[in-house]
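Please check what follows.
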Amino acid sequence: MPKQSTHADRVTVVALRTYTTKTSSEIAKIVDLSITTVNRIYTRAIERCFDPIHTKISDEHVQDAPRSGRPTKQDPKTVETILSKEGRFTENEAVEEAWTDEEDAR
């Protein structure tokens, strides 16, 4: 699996592409990312209204994109209950709650 770019990597890529004459392959070696990733990061910054002439890099130019996928169905209270100790059985309670059939009872 390819290395994921961090926020710092993305800022470094945009800064090096803007303030230096380094090529994408040189920048890729510096930040240890692929050339394609370097080009994507810079292109995405431009799409997010980064202007290389005014040269101010803001968080919105390099922030993580929203993740795809289905949102969670669990509300915060349910998650809190699941993760808290109150929602867990002790060993004795688990034994009492355990299901047994006739074969297990023999």
Remarks:
- The mean pLDDT is 80.
